[in-house]
Specification:
alpha/beta; TIM Barrel; two-stranded antiparallel ribbon; 12 strands; about 20% strand
Length: about 270
């Protein structure tokens, strides 16, 4: 099991300096990764908002060991070619520590800019864009004629970037963007629409669905417990590790940076 810190990039966390310093503390106190949200706007918070790629570049320069990455990039509102260049550049800058999470993102990040947030369309754009992104990162000449994205005689620099996908369970359709993905970051809500951990029994189904949709066997599975739950105890962590979970994130979305820093300094629950 690896342990990461997972936090938003707006409000009190909207300063790249705050994110950088939290990442430095994470590395100093034995954590394995530091991951940030990727949002443009939201109805429930005030600026500032930090661009995740600029913040992660600063973090890459200030750290040397921990994995880093956006968790997750809303691929349907991005251009795959630009994302491939950003990912490849950050992977080189970090000496191979980038993990790139993909998802569909929040609906308001589309509708507030006059774009469609229809769920079916976003899911299809994620599948099409993820396929093209894999081709770009492979470094070979690309010819792609998808429903939403096209590329003709394009060649990007090759870069070995682990790509994870993320989605909500339970669901009726296949896992989106899963083909050739090396990891999965499942999201589950309870009856009150709050986030919760998957159960041990649910994990087997989640992994099976991921692999059926084209995800790689033995892929990483990352889970996170809400801020109020805190870190897992050793017994719980062992149970999830035996069920196939490889990453556990400490969430910082509902607590101030000072409290997250305090939790970071206590170290991961090894």
């Amino acid at each position: 099991m690896r342990y990461g810190v997972y936090t938003k990039s707006f409000g009190e966390y909207g300063s790249p300096k705050v994110l950088r310093d939290l990442a430095i503390a994470s590395e100093e106190h034995g954590w394995d990764g530091f991951f940030v949200w990727d949002l443009l706007s939201a109805p429930t918070y005030e600026p500032p908002v930090a661009d995740p790629w600029v913040a992660l570049a600063a973090i890459a320069q200030a750290t040397s060991r921990i994995f880093i990455g956006p968790m997750v990039v809303p691929l349907p509102r991005r251009r795959p070619a630009k994302l491939a260049l950003e990912a490849g550049t950050l992977q080189e800058l970090s000496d191979g520590r980038l993990i790139l999470g993909l998802g569909t993102g929040a609906g308001w990040d589309y509708t507030r800019f006059g774009e469609s947030a229809r769920r079916k369309e976003l899911a299809e754009r994620l599948d099409d864009g993820a396929e093209l992104l894999h081709k770009f990162l492979a470094g070979d000449p690309v010819e792609h004629a998808g429903k939403y994205y096209r590329a003709t005689d394009v060649r990007m620099p090759a870069s070995d970037v682990p790509i994870w996908t993320s989605g909500f369970w339970p669901r009726t359709g296949p896992v989106r963007g899963a083909r050739d993905a090396t990891g999965l970051f499942p999201q589950i809500r309870d009856e009150a629409d709050d986030f919760r951990l998957p159960t041990i029994d649910e994990l087997a189904t989640i992994r099976a669905d991921f692999e059926k949709a084209g995800g790689r066997p033995h892929a990483d599975i990352a889970i996170w417990s809400p801020s109020e739950a805190g870190a897992p105890n050793a017994e719980t962590a062992t149970q999830y590790e035996e069920a196939g979970v490889t990453w556990w994130f400490q969430d910082g979305s509902e607590i101030p940076p000072t409290e997250l820093h305090r939790r970071i300094t206590t170290g991961p629950p090894t």
